[in-house]
Design brief:
The chain is built from 23 helices and ten strands. It is α/β, with parallel strands linked by helices and 522 residues long. Among the domains are: 85 residues, Serine Threonine Protein Phosphatase 5, Tetratricopeptide repeat, CATH 1.25.40.10; 94 residues, Rossmann fold; 174 residues, Glycogen Phosphorylase B (Rossmann fold), CATH 3.40.50. The strands form two sheets. A six-stranded parallel β-sheet has the order 7-6-5-8-9-10, with helices on both faces. A four-stranded parallel β-sheet has the order 3-2-1-4. Strand 8, helix 22 and strand 9 form a beta-alpha-beta unit. Helix 1 runs parallel beside helix 3, helix 5 packs antiparallel against helix 6 and helix 10 runs parallel beside helix 12. The termini are far apart.
Length: 522
Amino acid sequence: MALLMRCVQLRCMGAVDEAVRLLSAAPPAWFRFPPLLTERAQLFADQGRFEESLEDCRALIAQSNAGAPRQLRDQLAARALDVIDAGIAEFPSDVDRLLRRIRICLLAECHEQVVDTCRRVLDVFPDHPEALNNLGYALVALQRYAPAIDCYRAMLASAPDDADTWLNLGNVLRHERQLDCALDAYRRALALRPAFAEAHMEHALCLLSDGQFAAGWAEFEWRWSTRQLRPYYFKDATPPWLGDFDLSGKTIVLWDEQGLGDTLQFVRFVPRVADRAARVVLRVPTSLKSLLQMLDPRVLVIDALETLPAHDCHCPLMSVPHALGLDRPADFLCAPYLKPSPNEVGDWSRRLGVRRRLRVGVAWAGRQSGMINPTRDVPLACLARLWSVDADFFALQKDIPESDCADHAELGAVLNDCGKFDDFVDTAAVVAQLDLVIAVDSVIAHLAGALGTPCWLMLRASGEWRWDNPDGVSSWYPGVRVFRQRVPGEWDAVVGEVVAALRRVADEDAASVRSGSQSPAA
């Protein structure tokens, strides 16, 4: 705090260089403190080091997706562009200035401006590799996959031995669900760079999307060598278990990785490990601990804050199917495999009241912290037609996206607000009492699937490997039905299909209630 106050004081005095010098001597861990990182971002901008300033803003947004870090980023990006554009106005053909403009716009997520500026460079230098690469990146961010493919193919025409470009081409082909072509692109990348961990991981996801599970699980082990995931590998003195030795008489730790939805999806395999080992310890996020304590009485469930008991080996949860040799869709279908707490169900039953008509839970967005995924979420305004259906709707969002707050406030009693759930044991108690959940690709979809509550999944066009069955049903959850975008970014048609299907179910439910029979399954 003293360092922060001193830097603020120096900046106000105009002694920017001295403030930056003080910060450069600070340990990297100190910059996990958002106010200090914010101060450094502002100081870098004052020095004209706009790229470094915006990198700090990116780190702030990763820590918290609240409005303030994004507002700071946008303000600093505007300052940077004012400076750069003044230079471009004087020297309009200066490629270095145009390239710097591209980098600033990328850091500020101004992808339309990236596209426009890249094309200015390419008008002069049609094969400029940095401009082509950044153009492809921006087009993918804008979900314009076909021109992005053309962009990467143009790069490969002049540099056919560039493994990074083959990887980028594979990724965008996978977005377009051209899986055979994507697999070929990944193999070309790996032929050029056999230890290319990122290419192995994307190749794995493509294999899984294509239903090639045995090869996909094996390739997926490369994830721990990628820059993104390497820092999160389990730091432990015991050996990893990948099915390569007998677990009889041994205690194994199965540990969570990546998202909450991944944990819920893969805990289905934990009882199978318990069949082999003397003891299983399952480490999960704190918010899932209470719910998962009811998974299997043989399993000790702990969170990351608790001390691990003595153990002989460990395995990340998403490696368990590989370790067990599970490679057929029939191996995955075991839902429901979670159950809600009877006490919480009773409590929420009283709070929800008597069922009058079809009960539908809605989760239109994923988590709103860290680096969110806007192509996954459905703007709440797009769901306006949904509320006309004769049903009771319940919001299953833990956090309302900032862009949806006004629309959410206007809905009032149309969308019942369950309040902020304490943890997933509460959420599960509500979901278990619903007739249907309508969700985007988020932890709520996995929770509904694991509990056996019917779920309709609103999915972006590019999809995700675990939902890629062409017939619209899930290999992982028998009760999940997929409604996929036909055009990237266009949710209207998806919502229209959902509304039409929901209206039919609601009408059948109303008819069954009038006749006194049970309500139909969604």
